[in-house]
Amino acid sequence: MRILHVCPLYYPVVGGVENVFRAVSEGMAERGDDVTVFTTTGRSLGAFMNPMTEPLPSGEEMIHGVRVRRFPYRRVSRLAARGLAEGWSALRLPKGDLLKRWSSLPWVPNLSGEIVSYKPDIVLAGHFPAQIVFDAMKAKDAAGFPLIFHTALHLDMRDLSHDAVEFLDRADALWVNTVHERDTLVKRGIAGDKLHEFGVGVDPVQFQGACGKRVRERYAIGDRPVVLFAGRRERDKGVFTLLEAMERVWQHIPEAVLILAGPVVRYTDKRSLDPWLKKYQGAIIPIEGFNDDEKKDLFDACDLFVLPSRVESFGIVYLEAWISGKPVIGADIGSTRSIIEDGRDGFLVGFGDSGSLASRITHLLEHPGVGREMGMSGREKVLSRYTWGSILDRLHWFYRHLSGK
């Protein structure tokens, strides 16, 4: 089967959607299919808006059995496109919402033509509303191959317009992450048999050999309790809510350590974070970047994982904490409610509710047995539902069914 995956960014870029496309591409290649990824030379989403960021080399390379072709993207016309989109929307002309979204992510000249020329048996494209998703649909209209969208919708941040739903419905199938996403799209008029809740997963093998002791020794933590946050350090991810909560936690458990692992993308967030890091130097450990081996050690080192974010379409980091046997705390939003069972494998708190978050963190640190039980419940859930092996087996069958191969 000749499989084509189309996505804005791909490994070595690391992120939720990027990790999904890598896992699916390499998994399909391991199953004997011819897999190619069309992506851009971008190093991050921020690079599409920052002309000072040097792109990755264009061209073709093989990565773990997957042919990866990187296309240069255009920045020059984006200001004009954004102005056109804003003006179109202001005049309330048709399709203004989609035009505005279309202007917000990278352009690859003639990508639709390249997709048609490749002659794929099936295409997976994501994530909406990246411009390349529109290019994939244009190519489908020209060549007639089956097209799947990986949606990864952030429904707790913004609603979908009628135009967006209408566009998504043109795909042959939609890969949704959660029951919340599926139910929302059904309510908006998309047929249930077009929606497939494959979710996302982790590979338990990648977390074998984890050694939290290495992290504790490197940062001189010793046997102090550790709260871990892993993700972009920004307001919508809940990092400032967590900092406010930890101020209360430190009143009861002053020896607790907070690890903030992940990049700071926005200058405004960095400016807001710096006073916290200065005030609680020694109690807060910032880690800008980490590889896969360091990641599994971080999860092994912590006592609990906290990501009180409102911008998750799934939250694969919860799975990574669970496979490491750790309890989790997330924000009480639709997508996260679909993953975390409150009181069984973790806790849910209202987004921005630092008081409730502090109470839950304190409870888990003061009752480590409860945390261990929650962590093991989460691990059992991952092993039964969220391993890439089982997800890819179902997805591989579906690819063949849809393509007729």
Task: Give the topology, please.
Layout: E1 2-6, H1 16-30, E2 34-40, E3 59-63, E4 66-71, H2 78-90, H3 96-102, H4 111-118, E5 122-126, H5 131-143, E6 147-150, H6 162-168, E7 173-176, H7 179-187, E8 195-197, H8 212-218, E9 226-230, H9 239-252, E10 257-261, H10 267-279, E11 284-287, H11 292-301, E12 304-307, H12 316-323, E13 328-331, H13 334-337, E14 346-349, H14 354-366, H15 368-385, H16 388-403
Parallel strand pairs: 1-2, 1-5, 2-4, 5-6, 6-7, 7-8, 9-10, 9-12, 10-11, 12-13, 13-14
Antiparallel strand pairs: 3-4
Helix pairs in contact: 1-16, 2-3, 4-5, 8-11, 9-14, 12-15
> How many DSSP H or I helices?
16
How are the strands of the biggest sheet laid out side by side? Answer: 3-4-2-1-5-6-7-8
Low-confidence stretches: 96-104
Q: What is the percent of helical residues?
A: 40-55%
Instruction: Provide the residue-averaged pLDDT.
Output: 90
Distance between termini? Answer: 7 Å
Described by the principal axes of the CA atoms, the overall outline is globular
Task: Give the class from helix and strand content and strand pairing.
Answer: alpha/beta
Number of strand segments: 14
Share of β-strand residues: 15-25%
Main sheet characteristics: 8 strands, mixed
